[in-house]
Amino acid sequence: MRIQEKARGAGFDWEEKEQVWEKVKEEMDEFESEFRATGEVDVEKAEGEFGDLLFSLVNYARFIELNPETALERTNKKFMKRFTYLEEQAKKEGKQLKDMTLAEMDVYWEQAKRL
Description:
mainly alpha
């Protein structure tokens, strides 16, 4: 975000948020194409495209005045709360997550989302 703010300060920035969102979609397509082309993953290329996607998402967040670090931290906390609930419910039923199907875990996950 600081890199992008520095670029903005030098006059190197988008004019409209719609332009930034188009860039996000372009980067998503490029990232996805790394997997569609051959079905194999060139890790170096994939990481490069993923980095571009993240960078463009951070740029969009900056453009609409969201703090991407705060957003990610909130999501991490939300995930951990739900995952902890999932583990606790499985334990109450004498189950281990590794032995459960994704569908079984999803029942608890959906319950956690409603809390």
